[in-house]
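Support case: WTA complex. Customer-provided input:
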Amino acid sequence: MEYGFQIKSFEEYKEAYRQSLEQPEEFWAGIADEFLWRRKWDKVMECDFKKADFKWFINGKLNITENCIDRHLLHDGDTPAIIWESNSKEEASRVITYKDLYFRVNQFANVLKNSGVKKGDRVCIYMGMVPELPIAMLACARIGAIHSVIFGGFSAQSIADRLKDANVEFIITCDGAFRGGKDIPLKNIVDDALTTCQFVKKVIVLLRTHTPVSMIKGRDKWWHEEIKKVEAQGNSPVTAEEMDSEDPLFILYTSGSTGKPKGVVHSSAGYMVYTTYTFVNVFQYKPGDVHFCTADIGWVTGHTYILYSVLCAGGTSLMFEGMLTWPDPGRLWDIVDKHKVNVLLTVPTAIRSLMAFGLTPFKGKNLSSLKVLGTCGEPINEEAWRWYNENVGKSRCPIVDTWWQTENGGIMIANLAGVTPSKPGYSTLPLPGVLPVLVDEHGNEIMGNSVSGYLCIKSPWPAIIRTTYNDHERCRLNYFATYENMYFTGDGAYRDENGFYRITGRVDDVLNVSAHRIGTAELENAINMHTGVIESAVVGYPHELKGQGIYAYVIMEKKPVGPELIAEDIRATVARIIGPIAKPDKIQFVNGLPKTPSGKIMRRILRKIAEGEMKQFGDTTILLDPSVVDEIKKGRI
Ligand code: WTA
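Agent response - structure generated as follows:
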């Protein structure tokens, strides 16, 4: 379908942007009008930055799945909603039309109902990239349950922490997930998590890899057997639950600068309106486009730009189970060619790893269907941008560099493909409704162009984070208390002479490793769990492929004999506590850490050493023991 709010020229963008800030209520009402509502809103918004209290489309009633599925049935029922490509080249692709999706989502919604899931219940989804994953998410949304999807690379401990935080009683998982040459035993990992989560009542298990699993009587049910029961009941569609605009749609955990991941909560209406608006405009969606976002649905990019926004626009979303370079480095290009992909959205880390294979993997692959390329998740270096442009886009596809965060719901700063100007390494201009500002450390706004500062957002947008689950104060303190009357992103940015933004990276204690956010405090907690470790400090350093690598300085009770072996053991502990993505790249054993007399670790010095900068640490005489710096420098890896 086509939305009337699609911006078609730079002039139109400027006009939309002006109106969005001068008359935000009229502006967003005009956009929201194009969606399906059970009941329209009384007031467009009430926003209070001080209390971190945001309400959009107040008293509106809707169900997002009626926008994602039902409304397309009449004209686009036979259009593919999801095209699925398996991990294995040999396994057939699956095409799920909007009609099929309607059927499957209703069927699984009935399974959830039979299992006792009700509106407002939290449902954890821990699955591989199979079509049943979006079906499970949509089925939750259909009956008003709040899904909490956990990326399939997280450990049992991480799952348990998330289950406890949101008091989750229902889990949907798979026996296993295929990832490249591996078979990840998801159900076993869930079982490990559940040893400390007795409050979980039901686990629904999809058969995928035929890995042996233990099914606990009364608690664990096979997906296909539950479906059979629904068939026996007559397979009637469920009536979508009427949701208030502000009813939570999902929780998604993300790392911050404190030890514990936060459950970011998004609303039903604001999230739907904003994400669809950004999808249609940034990627310049045209009916029939095949949109391929290579992210995992377990991250926000997947939630928004594989699932919700694409389906609300009536588009076709390609989802891929495997790895872009497996079984060979031409796999991604095979898929683009095979499914005639029009829009490709990926992360700079993937581009850099593909670059390493040279141009041979492109041989014989027809990429002429591509119209728009996108990147997200981390800063893109100019070399990768140019390679992407020349070899993938053949210098004829606009590249959109989309900056945003889990807490934002959708893209905040990006060029609109072929409509607004682009510049390598720059996300360029804000989306309508978004007023970015740069501030210094005291919160003073830095005016003018060609300046750098901390990036904040001064205007509320419909998909702004509503709360952190069960702890609103944490949300307020994290994002709205650092600087008055604005949302603090945790990122640094540069505004060039034309007012274009370049996001330079995190300015807080969060690392961005292969476009995944990992908090240093979380990492240190995990390392400190390892036997014999007294203390640790983690910093990031530039990594050719991953963007940032993880550098850990570790103090042990006893000087380690065979440090490499112990380092491997520590990595194993981190993988067990958080997940394999968080394994430190470098571990240096030290006798002390540079600390101020008040006991604060001077991370600035550790960061410089990790980066290979051996001089200019500033004043080190204030350190409790300045000699540790020399020792650390000598032992640098
Ligand atoms: C970083 C991912 C530079 C940034 C959608 C942000 C980016 C964090 C870009 C959010 C970009 C995201 N250029 N950096 N285009 N996009 N980032 O929550 O540091 O997983 O704060 O959301 O990724 O990561 P998250």
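Residues 254, 299-301, 376-379, 401-406, 427, 489-491, 503, 505-506, 512, 517 surround WTA (CB under 6 Å).

Case will auto-close in a few days if no follow-up is received.
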